[in-house]
Each structure stands twice: as C-alpha cells, then as structure tokens.
Prior knowledge:
Elements: H1 6-14, H2 20-29, H3 40-59, E1 65-68, H4 71-81, E2 84-90, H5 95-107, E3 115-120, H6 125-130, E4 135-136, E5 138-143, E6 146-152, H7 166-175, H8 187-197, E7 214-215
Parallel strand pairs: 1-3, 2-3
Antiparallel strand pairs: 2-5, 4-7, 5-6
Amino acid sequence: MTIIDPAVASVLDTHPAKDNSDEDDLLESLENDPTLDSFREQRLQQLHEEFTRAKHLRNQEHGQYAEIKDEKTLMDIVNTGADLCVVHFFKSDFHRCSIMDRHLEKLAPLHFDTRFLRMNVENAPFLVTKLKVQVLPCVIAFKKSVSVDRIIGFEGLGYSEDTFSTTDLERRLLGSGALVREKLNNGQDAELSYQRRNGFGNRNKSSADASDDDDWD
C-alpha cells in the first residue's frame, strides 16, 4: 500500500470527497494552504490519486457497514474481495452486539481501505463452527484472508458501555494492522479513553463478571 505524505493524509481525513466536484472545490481551496507549501506539486498529485482511489473503493462498497446474509458471500469477500476486513458476528437480540454495531458504524466511513461487515450467527453455522465463535459480540479482523485479531465480547476494550469508546476500538484494530491509520482522536471518545486509563472504569473483568458476556452457545 502506498505511503501517504502526512500533510496529504491530514487533508484526506478532514475533507472526505465523494464526487469530482468535492475534489475540485477542495483543491481550489488549498491553493494557498501552508500545509502543502513544501513539495506542493507532489502532494497535490498524491491528493488527487488518493481521492480517485477512495472513490473507486467506495464504489465497491467500502466505507459502509454492511450485513452479509450468507456464508459464501462473506467467505468470498474475506478471501478474494478485500485485503482488509473486520467482521462482526452478532445476534440481533443481544444488547452488547448493538453496542459494538454503533462503534463499527462510526469507523466504517472513515476507514474506507477496510471492509466492515456483520454476520448474524444464525445464518452462519459453518463459519461459527470453523472459527469457534462462542461468545458474542465476536469481532474478527482479517488481513489478506488471514485472521489477525479477535475481540471476544469487549475484551481488551473496556468493561461497560460507559468506558468503551470508538477510539479504543480503532486503536485495537490499528494494532493488528486491520486499519491503515488513526482517524479518531477527539471529543467524547478521547475523554472516555482518558477516564478508563485513569481508573474511572474497570478495564479487566473479574471472574464473576465474565458471566455477563452473551454466551449464545
């Protein structure tokens, strides 16, 4: 994957373009932007190339959080359709699955390099057995069809809805290489992360709390 100039990455992350008019307006507005002063031509060229690539990926359903209804389609996407995939195995009546959904919905449009998918376990008996999915929510990250991370419940993220932020999830997925670069670091999410790091939320579960996980097996 192409290494993006930090100045270009900053512009891309704060001005996501969806069509050619967006790109034209942005390039015009950047003519006097000091962040692009050095190596201006190279940076503008890379900016154009990244906009083009992003729009191409979005046309292939990147940038959205999509539910997959059958196992073969999911396997095709993971194995041949996308280099980076994050798959949430869920059950519709599990509250913690809905919490995970909300965070993944926020990440999907920001991280268009990665496919964000959800699969109801009731529609995936083969994959549930093959991947040993037992506790929900279960989020599995894939890189070039190889599993690189597995989040069971809220393991490694937080203890409750109050201390589990989208930034926490983003950083976890960044650490496994399932995302390309950090795009969240502000507002409420940053404050929740700060509270958790400073002891206002219990990051690790006790053995008594472990039973709170949605075990659907």
